[in-house]
Amino acid sequence: MALWLIRRLVQAGFVMLAMSLIVFIGLHMIGNPIDILISPEADQAERARAIAALGFDKPLWQQYAYFLQGALHGDLGRSFVFNEPALRLILQRMPATLELAVTAVLMSVLVGLPLGLFAGLYPHSFAGRTVMAGSILGFSLPGFWVGLMLIMVFAVGLGWLPSSGRGTTAELFGVQWSFLTKDGLRHLIMPALNLSLFNISLVLRLARAGVRETMPLDYIRFARAKGLSPQRVVFVHVLRNILIPVVTVVGLELGSTIAFSVVTESVFAWPGMGKLIIDSINVLDRPVIVAYLMIIVALFVTINLVVDLLYTALDPRVRLGGRA
Amino acid sequence: MAAREESPFARVARDFATSPVAVAGLVLITIIVLLAVFASLIAPQNPYDLAQLDIMDGRLPPGSLSGDGLTFWLGTDDQGRDMLSGILYGLRISLIVGAGSALFAGIVGTSLGLTAAYVGGKVEAAIMRLVDLQLSFPAILVALMILAALGKGVINVMLALVIVEWASYARTARGAALSERAREYIEAAENLALPRWRVVFKHLLPNCLPPLIVIGTIQVARAIALEATLSFLGLGVPITEPSLGLLIANGYQYMLSGKYWISFYPGIALLITIMAINLVGDQLRDVLNPRLQK
Question: B65: which strand partners?
Fold first, then answer.
């Protein structure tokens, strides 16, 4: 178990090292951030000073060595653009992303589960079929385009909801949150719905399949024969059993929801770390790109670790480490 | 009386045809591919030929007439480009990138998967560890990072998509190959002292194909969607080779002023393409799945 954990962490370290090296070399070959950062009117001396200040006068391997040295001390470099520590920049924007992702995941359960239950209980009805057809659409629709269409209908057309930003935020535990104010909630609803669309379809299908598998089982028949009301059978006996796979999958999807929020944040100008990384890539802000990479790898290693540990807790047949 | 021998292809075709929705999907795909291939003949305008564009025609709503009597059925973009023509040409790039990267990823992934299953040992462990690692990160993130390091471009996008997609082929190929490997025809081929590559590619591979075809179909749809997303974010294809995703991105800034058509119609084209491929993929999965066969 300890060996397994150590191996995972070493592997994660290797991934970070390899990825940061690739990004360093790649960005070096694409272009020079100096061209973007310095105004074209700057004279030669000014230019040289800026280049020296950012460390670009050193050979690339030396720049990388400096970065590694700093990284070991928890310093991932300063953003070229904001002139702030890259790590702080990203951590500042992380709550916005997490807020969006968690809301989206909650929404996928709150919308997907009832629809899935319904489609599973009445699979041959018109409404049940419509729900299923809708879920195929949910899988096929390109997320960013749906976001644009939501803006078109609800912001431009009907004028009900704002199209961008977080709105008014309120402080809780020293962090700004949108869901605490009415205005913030109005800003949150469209991006969260957009981000949850795929997961709604997923939960819906899982729930439907679960209901259809569970309904003919003996214990359900028995509960019915006992004279329990249909509501009680569905909401207590059936629901409890289909919740396990739903919760597992939703937990697994949290990681990719965070990853995919890059797209949603760009569409709705949501000031999270996804929007930050896209902006940084466009201006070749290397410290931020590399720092984002480190954080996201660490985040995913943690999520995968937790999921694997939860699996062993839920299903003792799964043994970590395997044959190796 | 012996039943007439039916070729595997004929059987698959017959089973496939049992779903009218899937057949409709296949017909749609055929039409879409034909539209993309013959875009230069069908499109009312060559969207890349600046001489044919008139900035005065910019941002016209669908159905408007141009200065020289051409009807813009789907409106125009900010450059005065006919959206219908732009979509037909964009479809071409989306399909090339999607199908091309899925094909390359299939070749790379299948070869590695078969090698893993056939050779075993350390080689297998190394390949499969790489697969696990790759699949533990969401596709969009990996593609994003690769493009951050490589920069824009059609070839770069395809490369990123291949790197993102090869792992699912490798996993499927290994799984199929492991169960086929134990069969007698492989043993027979080995006992004939055939060269290894021949056993793997002539005997093993054809029998592992069904699940790979299913994965391949779905991966084409995924690749098209991912390319569109990356291009929308400004990290995909360059402005000189606009795919559907880039067309949608171009319309983004005009959406708030109610000029919906620049983003709307390319999105519809994208949606229909992805959905048609998914419908065919779903049916292929049912048809080619040996567990469901009677």
Answer: B71
